[in-house]
Task: structure prediction
Amino acid sequence: MAIQVGDTLPSVTFKVMGENGPESVSTEELFVGKKVVLFAVPGAFTPGCSATHLPGFVVNADKIKAKGVDAIVCTAVNDAFVMDAWGKSQNAEEIIMAGDGNAEFAKAIGLELDLTERGLGVRSKRYAMIVNDGKVELLNIDTTGIDASSAETILAAL
Ligand code: BEZ
Result:
């Protein structure tokens, strides 16, 4: 069952690129004591995620943070090297690019997406959350298109 509004995010470790390579960053480090916008995409460098989803958060990052958001986190079932390269290619300096390479987080919150038929294996559904001190305050999942989980929709909800 997918995580619900009011639930606390599970304890999982992401990989985030550091100065000397990928570093483990826990959900506690990312979310506890902070207000965070988390969004997930099915894949770094895929057309919709690169043309619309991530750029929307890059363009609106300052406006989102001006609403009291401490951090914006982007996750995908990709490794930290790919997430870092994707973030750099999109000038996403204000966004934490959190690799969930083994789909551990996606599976733990019940939002994994099986794209095996398309040659992509298990990925993450496209969604965005507002998380306050580790607790889910808003969860918007897109099954087609990029609407409920867009930066514009989240900004309007903050
Ligand atoms: C996309 O364009 O966002 C996309 C493409 C293939 C699989 C998943 C997402």
Observations:
- Strands lie at 13-18, 21-26, 35-40, 71-76, 95-99, 112-115, 121-124, 126-132, 135-142.
- The pocket of benzoic acid is lined by residues 42-43, 46-49, 115, 118, 120 (CB under 6 Å).
- The first strand starts at residue 13 and ends at 18.
- The mean pLDDT is 98.
